[in-house]
Amino acid sequence: MPQLNIDCEGPITQNDNAYELCEAMMPDGGNFFARVSRYDDYLADIEKRQGYKAGDTLKLVLPFLMAYGATNEKIEEFSEKTLMLLPGAGDMLSRIAGLMPAFIISTSYCPYLQALCRVTGFPADNVYCTSIDLDRYKLTEQEQKRLERLASEIVGQGLLDWPEGAKDIRDLSNKNQALVSRMDNIFWKEIPRMGIGRILSDINPVGGPEKAKAVEDSLKRTGLTLSEVLYVGDSITDVQALELVKNAQGVAVSFNGNRYAIKAARWACMCGSTGIIHAIARLLTLNGMDAVDGLMGYMGIEQARGAELLDALASMGVEPAYLDPLRRLSGEDAPGLFLINSSNIFDVIKYSEYVRKNVRGLSVGDLG
Q1: Domains and CATH numbers, the chain
Q2: I want to staple 111 with a disulfide (CB 3.0 to 4.6 A). Which of 76, 180, 226, 230 is the partner?
Q3: Cα distance between residue 9 and residue 15, in whole Å
Q4: What would the pLDDT profile of 146-161 be if each residue is shown by its tens digit?
Q5: What is the pLDDT of residues 278-291, one digit of tens each?
Q6: How far does Cα 322 stand from its chain's mean position?
């Protein structure tokens, strides 16, 4: 029997909750978050700094959110008010329990996942997410004003950039090296000297290796193996989990993923509806964990889109109830499935990132 481990933001919801919190609560907060997120990408993917993992953006922004009035209650209220499910996600989450064990593994703050569970009825016990309790911390007026000034400085910086193939800071321009140095100073020297700096050591976002650990923990609960996992993710925080499942011959799927997810996955799926994941899950329950390979082997191709893909799924026993809603999709929203290899990976990245921005919006789609 397969089990589903799925990210939340991207495969289930259209939100980037932390980005939206910053945008709503801070002056020019969207640009602030984008700059911190890009610094996160650099630390996790280029420098691979010891002790840092993809997704730690979510702890870096918390002192600043508190400086602009964030509390547990406000984050919870905002998360429930702004929650946006991807088309097909509510149906998938309500019905997936009839197919297989399912777990959501998300870097997002727990209040956001709690809102999702209340809306969809998904069991909260099957969710892994980033625990926060802002009300434990006190912020002095002096620290608040200092954080406001630092936020303004970060917004005024350029967006950190590096050339393709960069491996360490020496591959960056002098300007970008200076940006890294300044961000290092802010986050690892100035803020830790503040009382509120304790939040950076207390909070442990569920990103990068923590997502891989969550997959392994969920298997202890089900008694299944990594080769029986369907993992669905879309970003840099899913890389280790996707690689873990792929290397164990499970089904590792990037869903409307960015370049990080594509490079870590075996399969790339693009669609305007999570219904395609529901259909793939059904395919696996009918035909086993090799069924996606068998699907492409049946067609004799490495990629399929639209009616061609849906007809192939139908021929392998997936019922019309799973496929009919997908047949109504067209253009970039129509489902596509690609076997990722060295000859097509750059084209797949380009197409997936295009669909990602079309589905989730340009600002969110650009985030790592």
Answers
A1: 3-13+85-131+207-365 (3.40.50.1000), 27-67+133-202 (1.10.3870)
A2: 76
A3: 6
A4: 999 999 999 999 899 9
A5: 999 999 999 999 99
A6: 24
